[in-house]
Amino acid sequence: MSYPNPAAIPSSQSLYRQASSLLLYQGVLSGAVGQAFLSLLQSLSQREDELTCIRAYSNWFKTLAASGESWQDYLMWRILWDDNPFSRAVQRVALSDLPHSLVAAVKQDLHILQIIYKCTSQQLSLWVQEVSQSETQPVVWDVESQAPSFLPQESNWANSLPDLANYYRDNGAGLLAQYRALRWQSGELVGIPHPDPIELGELVGYESQQETLIKNTEFLLAGYPALHVLLYGSRGSGKSSLVKALLQKYSSRGLRLIEVAKSDLKDLSLIVDKLREVPQKFIIFVDDLSFEEDDEAFKALKVVLEGSVTARSQNIVVYATSNRRHLIREYFSDRPRPRDNDEVHAWDTLEEKLSFCDRFGLTLTFEPANQDTYLKIVRHLADLAKINLPQEELDYRARQWATRHNGRCGRSARQFIDFLTAEIST
Q: Does 111 lie in the same domain as 40?
């Protein structure tokens, strides 16, 4: 199938028809900026009155300015993030094995999108000026380009189909391409635009635990069976920070972090099913985990940890943190006593509760920091923050901080360094 030269910009009426005929990449223009663009094209193509066209251009300009992107960057990122049958299929199947009709539809859409890409802010401004017959040209929105450039460099985007397929295979599509960290909220995945930027190099004091967790995560990324991990120990010891720091190190290799609240663990099987068929690797992160008796979340997590009739997904592990060694709260009244209405095998039930943490393949223990470990963390963070104080003064103030605040732990050390940085800067 041959197409007209994409470098030639058609009339606004023709461009509106083509933009409305996208087969797979309709989502590229489904956002606020894309819809404002279509409304502007519609106003121009239908030769509506001058005021309507100017308002449509103003609305497009405002929504584009709010995004902080150029028109070309906006289009490019939406193409790379678009979740459609092609971007999903090409992550699992070689491009040569896809149905011919699917590949043909992609090429047709890329041709249309290339024409839209060539329709610059200057061209839209010119069309509006022609309709309004005004000597004043509308302001043009233009900012520096930041998007990847392998598509724009091609004279015909259809020739870049293998590169586009590789991009989807390496980076995913939809939310998984747009975000490295996500959370499960109200029954769906929601992207986290600004995940915690903490890095592994900032964490000291628990080197053996860090080494073990890194090794297990690398098994996951390499496609080998990886273990579910329970990180338990004293508060403020850096358990959660260690898990979040893995994202900074390995997101470029396809690692994604899915934050799941304890109240949403009942949806865990649904989450696993949604992620099972994609090539990215996932840490399902559950922070501050503990259960009450007969908690539905306990049963849902037990299924994922132990498995069921459905095969275990090889691209997902659960990393949970807890301040409790025994995750299910136990009371003295739970212990079996010889009464007529007691359960016959009550000790077995109690043992099942107490051994729940054993269902994690790895348990990493974070002991309370002693003074040497606490001061080691403080000195390390002070070096990273470029705080130049004599070591004796730094240690003395750190000990005073721990006494007056949250005790000796990594969290106290970071709070102390943050306070000290601000104090020195003012």
A: yes
Question: Going by DSSP bridges, is the β-strand pair 181-185/188-191 parallel, antiparallel, or unpaired?
Answer: antiparallel
The count of C-alpha atoms lying within 13 angstroms of the C-alpha of 230, restricted to the half-sphere facing its C-beta, is: 21
Pick from 298, 289, 293: nearest CA to 259: 289
Please list, residue by residue across 73-98, b when 16 or more beta carbons sit within 10 angstroms of its beta carbon and e when fewer do.
bbbbbbbbbbbbebbbbbbeeebeeb
Q: In a 10 Å sphere around its CB, with 0-12 CB exposed, 13-18 middle and 19+ buried, how is residue 322 labelled?
A: buried
DSSP 8-state code for residue 145: -
pLDDT in tens, 106-143: 999 999 999 999 888 888 888 888 877 665 566 666 66
Tell me the pLDDT tens digit for each residue of 327-373.
445 444 544 555 544 554 443 444 445 455 667 889 899 988 899 99
Do 354 and 390 lie in one domain? The reply is no
Residues 332 and 378 in one domain: no
Average pLDDT over residues 83-112: 94
The pTM of the full predicted model, rounded to 2 decimals, is 0.81
Q: How many whole angstroms separate alpha carbon 134 and alpha carbon 128?
A: 9
Q: Got the DSSP string for 358-424?
A: GGSSEEEEEPPP-HHHHHHHHHHHHHHTT----HHHHHHHHHHHHHHTT-SSHHHHHHHHHHHHHHH
Residue where a domain terminates, one of 366, 392, 415 = 366
Residue numbers of the domain that contains 281: 186-366
How far, in Å, CA of 416 to CA of 414, rounded?
5
Tell me, yes or no, whether 153 and 170 share the same domain: yes
Asked whether residue 84 is assigned to any structural domain, the reply reads yes
Q: Which residue has the tokens 């496609």?
A: 223
Structure tokens at 343: 């359960």
Dihedral sign from CA coordinates of 83, 87, 89, 91 = negative
Domain total in the chain: 3
pLDDT tens digits along 205-230 = 889 999 999 999 999 999 998 999 99
Sheet-wide strand order for 181-185: 188-191, 181-185, 255-259, 281-286, 316-322, 229-233, 362-366
8 A C-beta contact, residue 25 and residue 79: yes
pLDDT tens readout for residues 361-402: 898 999 888 999 999 999 999 999 999 899 999 999 999 999
* Angstrom distance (rounded) from CA 350 to CA 28: 55
Q: What is the DSSP string of 182-250?
A: EEEETTEEEE-SS-----GGG--S-HHHHHHHHHHHHHHHTTS----EEEEESTTSSHHHHHHHHHHHH
